[in-house]
Write a structure and sequence with these properties.
Elements lengths: L6 H6 L3 H13 L4 E8 L7 H19 L3 E8 L15 H5 L19 H15 L5 E4 H7 L3 H9 L1 H10 L13 E2 L9 E6 L4 E6 L5 E5 L6 E2 L2 H12 L3 E5 H4 L4 H11 L7 E5 L2 E4 L15 H5 L4 H10 L6 E4 L3 H16 L7 H14 L14 H10 L4 H8 L6 H20 L20 H17 L6 H13 L6 H13 L7 H8 L1 H8 L2
Parallel strand pairs: 1-2, 2-3, 9-10, 11-12
Antiparallel strand pairs: 4-8, 5-6, 6-7
Helix pairs in contact: 2-3, 8-11, 9-11, 13-15, 14-15, 16-17, 16-18, 16-22, 19-23, 20-22
The structure holds zinc ion (ZN).
Length: about 525
């Protein structure tokens, strides 16, 4: 960072998470502890699109902690929501149908692993968050509602029913029906939330009729475990209940008249609170896997899927390096290589191993800091180039142990070791599942029978002779690259292109392949000479 940056420059090198932290302190006052919130309805597989909200809060939490503040990062599992739709990718569709309109928390786990459908998806996601270094305080809303934690707030919402109706109607094409109540009741007979004709006695008694089974029931709000506020009322209620200072929202909630607009008004008019500081985040999509993610489609990409392609620090880095209000795509295709290169470059910038202007370096430092799972290493971790690593792995038939021998001298500490192991696993997974065919190869074990011209044969013989004699004296792939040209030019009227193609055919039975000099060195002396030997 420059010694005396003017204010303008200062503003430009502040990361959005830090700016948001400053905004929270400014708007909410200087407090000892701030409450940051995020939440998801476990209505199906929690996918990578949902993850943007979680990590947005995590970055802001870290920024506040860096300012010496205590942070409660509460993560609301809205598992008392209704099971409205069966995702196409769930097994036992017929069995699940029986639970439609019941609380998600009462729906059984179709995988028969956890105590409920909700718990299954909650546990999966919580385990994934741990892998990317995110710690949350989970709040299970079904438990809160059933314990009666919100009974006073429910009564308050009923008392202020008209104010809620007025706010909601401002943004509705059709006004709410006269009988509408800010309350959902799960029928005591069939456990579904299609109850109607809800009547309130002005105190604690509620009566209702079930549209689906016809049951006429009554509940006491002080003791019932069947009442729930509708989403647009529930959200602002919890802001006040937990004292939420910050909660981001997706585009879908942020539109005018959307749930954030009405929640801002309801929190003041009904619950006497103030809305949290807000930050809108944009969508994230996957490139190379086809299209935007949505819960209704069967094939969803999860954090685990992305962790198969990118190291945990890189998953964080991708989000930290984009502004929160910018939509972007995470690549699963050939651009994975570029993403790794970009990450490595920014990491080198952060550690001063690559030159950049002050602003770039300052931003790189902050972004790399926010990307850490553990403490920031004091030295830059080992950076095996992803492209080259893919080649070395393929040379070694995908064997990570054998591949490690090639890199052994570069692996100097535990962090380097983890970097190598994780990156190797990602590279292997990518090669097997996502990489384009032209990127994949199998190294020949024996020299293939080829119909070679005299020039080609001379070239291979000359190269064999050169490598046999000089291999151990080669200092770098750059040097070998130059020598390759010399050997090619030693054969009369032999073109470089012809030389390269011949070598690829000998090595991997292909017309093209990885950059030759580093490729040859990675294959190793014995195997190369074995293949070149006439
Ligand atoms: Zn019923």
């Amino acid at each position: 960072m420059a010694n005396n940056p003017n204010e303008n420059e200062q503003a430009q090198i502040i990361h959005w998470a830090d700016m948001t932290a400053d905004r929270i302190i400014k708007q909410k006052g200087d407090k000892g502890q701030y409450v940051l919130a995020s939440g998801i309805t476990p209505s199906g597989v929690v996918h990578f699109g949902n993850f943007r909200e979680t990590i947005t809060v995590d970055f802001v939490a870290r920024a506040l902690r860096a300012r010496g503040k205590k942070v409660r990062f509460i993560f609301s599992w809205d598992d008392y929501d209704t099971f409205r739709k069966i995702p196409a990718n769930m097994p036992k569709q017929e069995e699940l149908k029986k639970y439609l309109f019941q609380p998600i928390v009462d729906t059984p786990d179709p995988f028969e692993r956890d105590e409920s459908y909700a718990a299954h998806h909650e546990k999966n996601y919580e385990a994934q968050l741990e892998k990317v270094g995110i710690e949350v305080e989970a709040i299970y809303q079904a438990k809160k509602y059933r314990k009666g934690d919100y009974k006073e707030q429910i009564k308050l919402a009923l008392t202020k029913r008209q104010a809620i109706v007025d706010i909601l109607n401002k943004y509705r094409a059709e006004p709410l029906e006269d009988s509408w109540m800010p309350l959902n009741i799960y029928c005591s007979k069939c456990n579904r939330d299609k109850t109607d004709h809800i009547k309130w006695d002005g105190q604690w008694e509620i009566s209702y009729t079930c549209e689906l089974c016809g049951h006429q029931g009554s509940e006491n709000l002080q003791t019932t475990s069947r009442a729930k506020l509708p989403w647009r009322v529930d959200w602002p209620m919890r802001w006040v209940f937990e004292g939420v200072d910050f909660e981001p929202g997706g585009k879908d909630h942020s539109s005018d008249g959307g749930s954030y607009t009405t929640a801002q008004e309801i929190v003041k008019e009904v619950f006497g609170g103030t809305p949290p500081v807000y930050l809108q985040y944009d969508f994230v999509s996957i490139k190379g896997r086809g299209g935007k993610m949505s819960s209704s489609k069967g094939d969803l990409v999860t954090v685990n899927d992305v962790l198969n392609i990118y190291e945990p620090e890189m998953v964080r880095w991708i989000f930290a390096s984009y502004k929160s209000n910018v939509d972007f795509a995470i690549s699963f295709d050939l651009d994975v290589i570029k993403t790794y290169e970009d990450f490595d470059r920014q990491e080198r910038l952060a550690y001063g191993l690559e030159e950049g202007n002050d602003k770039k370096v300052a931003m790189a430092k902050r972004v790399i800091e926010l990307s850490q799972i553990g403490p920031m290493p004091t030295v830059c971790p080992f950076q095996p180039s992803f492209r080259h690593l893919c080649n070395v792995l393929q040379i070694n038939d995908g064997d990570i142990k054998k591949t490690r021998v090639f890199y052994a001298k570069d692996i100097k500490n535990e962090r380097d070791e983890r970097r190598f192991q994780e990156r190797s696993r990602c590279a292997l997974h990518w090669l097997k599942n996502e990489a384009p065919d032209e990127f994949k190869f199998t190294l020949n074990r024996t020299r293939p029978a080829l119909d070679l011209t005299k020039a080609q044969t001379d070239f291979l013989n000359n190269l064999h002779a050169f490598l046999e004699k000089e291999w151990d004296n080669l200092k770098s792939d750059k040097e070998l690259h130059e020598k390759l040209y010399e050997v090619i030019h030693s054969v009369p009227e032999f073109e470089p292109m012809m030389g390269f193609t011949t070598l690829y055919q000998i090595l991997i039975s292909r017309e093209k392949g990885p950059k030759l000099a580093s490729f040859i060195l990675a294959i190793g002396k014995e195997r190369v000479l074995g293949l070149l030997r006439p």
